[in-house]
């Protein structure tokens, strides 16, 4: 046989096998990105290359057996997953008209009040350049639970195109696994007073105006407040937002929170010795509110450097017996760094204009520990804040009973599981012991393989500790008699394990942005006209085709 013909035939065979066996990988113009993740909800946003009325998100714990469908019919989609379990790792992928993306994971927010939080913060990154990519990769390596973006997310003008090329493309891997909570920078305001920023992000809307320009949320025992400093310093028209309305929101919000730690973030710094310097409007309009309601840390960007102030009170350093607030500029996210033009002022603890990096923050019980991590892995600055926290309240215990209509059978074996829990509003999550999961008070499951399985149900409810219960299921191979002592009588189980769930206060479960839809759980694979991949029957067909080609070439030798 001619060697070139032999090689081309082998190449064809390889292409056929790979093409048929790998499935249709969905190449999106914008990869899925996480927004508005809370204890029991998450928004998965993505964009398709063409209009599609059958887009959906498959998700679950350890698998992707649940489905949430998009109500949008065009290219832009944002799907809300609901009924999630707090502090839990979920796997998800996107189906878009017959194709599917590679699976990614994310972690839901913990129950409000949980005393362990890990977040990252940085601003001035949206260039699309190599420094931004290195910062994003470093952040992903440290795996924070959430990413606080401090503005100038898409240089130079915050256009629709720049959001794609300078935010979503270079930070795709990070944003697919870590939810971003952003504040707008002055560069976003260049284009239509930050309208593309609002079009591309899905943020909380818990202020009186229902605006995404400023908001708050809880993550564990930390309360976060995002302020639109552009609005405060006069870059926004009154129809968009006003200083008075924003101040009223901040005061009411800080007064109402019950979380012991309070972190505020915005773009224009109250204290800075960098090129732009201190923004006195932000300091004098909001500083008194931060001091009145015990804000612990203020994070900003705008100046392309890093700087940490001493604890500040009013327009000066706090006295030894006074409680001040440290103000940070974390503007080394990717834009060109700018040299300090003046000597370091007395209120500045540390500053740097030579390293890109991000702030890595862990808040455990009554200690907040922060460090500025450079892209080379080194630590530029570190500090800690401490406070005395009250003892956590004891949580009431719930109850959970589960039953199965057929605890044994031959494969494929279908069983129906029923859970009865108290409180009655508990969310039930099932792990069937074979790598698949589901949610709901009553669920059906089919065991395809023989084996002994332990089914675990977990009930979570606001104000009560989660409760787990297990039940065994035995599946034999076809033609094999069931083990002695097994039958089809319903099985039951009870148990309990500490923990609670509580929706994040103040954040609506269904966003008002077009294309968002409530999650649809407890569904098996399929639906919506989207297929995860080609039929397995195609692989034998490929083999037949290859065999035919080989025989034809032998006859022609």
What do these coordinates show?
This protein is α+β, with helices and mostly antiparallel strands. It folds into three domains: 25-108, Immunoglobulin-like (Sandwich); 109-386, Metallo-dependent phosphatases (Purple Acid Phosphatase, chain A, domain 2); 399-477, Immunoglobulin-like (Sandwich). The chain is 18% helix and 32% strand. It has nine helices and 31 strands. The protein has a seven-stranded mixed sheet with strand order 11-12-13-14-18-15-19, with helices on one face. Strands 10-9-8-20-21-22 form a six-stranded mixed sheet, covered by helices on one side. Strands 24-30-29-26-27 form a five-stranded mixed sheet, with no helix packed on it. Strand 21 (367-374) and strand 22 (379-386) form a beta hairpin. Helix 1 (3-21) runs antiparallel to helix 9. The chain is globular. Residues 1-23 and 485-557 have low confidence and may be disordered. GO terms for molecular function: acid phosphatase activity; metal ion binding. Keywords: Signal. Residues 1-27 form the signal peptide. This is PKD domain-containing protein.
CATH homologous superfamily caption of the largest domain = Metallo-dependent phosphatases
| Tally of individual domains | 3
How far do the termini sit from each other? 7 Å
Rounded to the nearest angstrom, the radius of gyration is 27 Å
Total count of helical runs of at least 4 residues: 9
CATH architecture of the largest domain: 4-Layer Sandwich
Main pleated-sheet profile: 7 strands, mixed
Determine the fraction of residues in helical runs and give it as a percent range. Answer: 10-25%
Question: Could you say what the CATH topology of the largest domain is called?
Answer: Purple Acid Phosphatase, chain A, domain 2
Average pLDDT metric: 85
Q: List low-confidence stretches.
A: 1-23, 485-557
